[in-house]
Design goal:
Restriction Endonuclease, alpha/beta, six-stranded mixed beta sheet, globular, about 150 residues
Amino acid sequence: MKLAYTYDQHHEAGTEWGRRELKEWVTDIFEVPNIKIAPRCTARIREHVEKEFLEEGWALDVRLDSDTRLEVFAMKEDMAFQLQTGNMSRAPYDLLKLEYLYKSGKIEAAGLALPTKDAAKAIGDNIAYAERVIRELKLFDSVITLPILVIAFE
């Protein structure tokens, strides 16, 4: 697995991650040559990313509120992060959960990591991919208002 690119222009996400000196750290997580993108690789990716976040003091699988089972992948202070390697229908839902946290005043910025289109095809059918999420973020710019860094890996 390697970092393909980032998209950091959505509501100045690059500035927010840079101000906290976290952008280089979070993108380096996706530079792991010994994890090969292939069918059934998602558990290994998730285990690696979870380990990296835990080592930096992030809480994993954080509930949005006490009345639901809705969770985000990780949170620390005023930041949240979502890893998506599943079905394309989950990506907009991830954006909705992150926007909720932002509008609730629980976070100031977020990140979302997902494979590139080609990597998603290698993983399986109808897997969420960065290029589509970025297009939709641009379309829904006035709806998804939180600063969100998109990390594309392959």
